[in-house]
Amino acid sequence: MVPTRELAQRLAEAEATIQALLSGQIDAVVDSESHTPVLLAKAQEALRDSEERYRRIVETTNEGIGVLDTAATFTFVNHRFAEMLGYTPAELIGKSLFLVLPQPDQAAAALRIEHSRQGVSEEGEVAYVTKHGSTLWTLLRTSPIRGADGTWIGTLGMITDRTRQREADEALRKSTADLRDERDRAQRYLDTAEIILLALDAEGRITLANRYACNLLGWTAQELVGRDWIDTCLPPRIRDALRQARHNLLGGDLSVIQNPVLTKAGEERLIEWRNTLLRDDDGHVTGTFSSGTDITERNQAVEALRTAEERMRFALTSANVGIWDMDYKVGLVRWSEILESQYGLLPGTFRGTFEAFAEVIHPEDRESVLGTIGRAMELGGEFSVDHRTIRPDGSVRWLSGAGRVLLGEDGTPIRAVGISQDVTERRTLELQYQQAQKMEAVGQLASGVAHDFNNLLTVILGCAEILTEDSTVTQEQREELGEIIKAARRAAGLTKQLLAFGRQQVLHTASLDVNMLITDMAGMLGRLIGEDMRVELELAPGLRPALADRGQLEQVVMNLVVNARDAMPGGGTVTLHTANVELENSSFHESGVVQGHYVMLAITDTGTGMSKETQQHLFEPFFTTKERGKGTGLGLSTAYGIIKQSKGHIWVYSELGKGTTFKVFLPCADSAASVPAVVAAAAPPVRRASETVLLVEDEVSVRRLSKRILEHAGFRVLEAANGDEAEQLYAQSADAIDLVVTDVIMPGCGGPELLRRLQVRAPALRVLYMSGYTEQSVARNEGFDSGLPYVQKPFTAAEFVRRVREALDR
Question: What pLDDT, on a 0 to 100 scale, did the predictor assign at position 653?
């Protein structure tokens, strides 16, 4: 086959020859050479042969060939050219090129013709419009055609059908674009995905890491690719374990795993991984592809929630708070184990219905509780209720509950939640506190009565003593006065007990004969426990003196004997036993026991005894086994506190039905200390006085008696009914007053305030305080210096004069 360019050249030459013949150029040549017409005929025949030969070549080629004149009109087209455009050659010859060109491409075609005129050959893709209106894509090659004289006479064009190739190219282009788009989408997904995307080869080297992975790890993709994943991005402590896990992964274990990763900055993040295997065309594993989710915050939140739940569970358990949840749609009630225990049920034994809840409410409280809950179900919102429950063992407990009912859009309850707490002990303490407040009020009343009573006793004792000294009084009258004095002194002893009961008396430890104390109290204890009970004494001879407060120890003995009496409702015997003992550190099941010698006082009854559980709570404040109204629960706790304050110990042993023994251990006093004598030594006589005393007392009878006693002893007395009056008297006679004798508590200005006012004028002024309260209690409550002279009412005339003299002689 002749090459296309050579064919084009030959066609161009043939066309030029034909054109020359047509123009008469050959005839001119022949004529010039005087040839004959025969020669002309031969030349014409040769020309026809050559033309035919080239025409066959042109018609048999697979390319379309067309010739244009200088006006862009077809002068020749082969059948292939016409066929490609859907025409016959005759339909195209003589027609303009622009007939088969789209309007937008005609300018480009004119430019190509101009280039051909200039002698330029071109090649390019051109679209033609077929006779049927379709587009024919071709590869066009153009060459200029010149005459024998070299002038441009037209353009030769050859077209190759490129439609299929173009469709293939377009398909390839589109496929390439689609692949590029798919790649771009995949890249965008890799870059924008909020998860780690990681590819590793079979050796564990990084082959791909998306932008999120790089940002999280702090590395660039270029830095990561090619590195060993485990050595680069995993904490050293887990690398061996993760190598084993990767080995399992390559073996087909696609389990979801969690492990920390190590960032470039050294921070650890917890990642949850989902993995898949990468395979080649033969199915061999070439690596892994993993997606990882950063669950650090989620794990921290879960851990915080778990911690919060544990704290809440611990708090609820420590506070003994039960939880309940009611689902009204299915009628199911869920209780926590603590709530079940509050009702005395074993874990998991609550039946889970509202009816089962109603059954465990105390019958007397059931209607009230169900009514409260019913109102909450109608209105929604919160409610609270306290009620009792009877446990399976018969014990009654108080429970305090609170809940909230949630209503649906139609106003019907859909759910309720709440809590419950056992408040039995709290309610008991509240009742006991109320009782203690009553006792406190009684104590304060008793103290006030004792104070006023002491004023009366002061007058009774003082007047009786004055009458006793009167020489005109008969012996019989003197004896009667003596009885009055004895009764007044016994009454004074009673006021001391009232003051102690009201906690207005501060007592001090001293060397004490416990045997003598028990002997002195025996008669009173016998009357205390009643006629159907006996008091027996087993007092050890040679008992060491104890270091204790007599008043406090008397209170301990009375509390223990009363406790024994209450434990013997049918009568019995109370035995008081004393002994010298020696304790060691192991003698008690408690710390703080100082080894050494002690005086033991044991009080044993033949009563009902106590259980081990009762004994464990015996000395707790407000704990009592007695019926309501028959005990405050303070007696034994008070005894315990007194003994501990005295640096002693108390111990109890009891068996049900066999009685109880309390043992009190008191530290021994210094052997050099002497036990106070029963009969006090006679006081030395008081000398005749001559000083002036300012007497301040708001109680008229006490003031008159005190004035009479002082004047009888030789003192000059100025009397005042209150502090303001006394201050005025002192201003008038300051130089003559040697001593101020004043009551501590008075309306308006009391004794301490009066002294402060007077000492502004006379800092060295001496004072003697007197009161129906004890020195320690008024010093504590009224704020005066307890080191100043003090006399407690009721007092005898001799004691009063002696205290005045002591104050003057200070």
Answer: 84
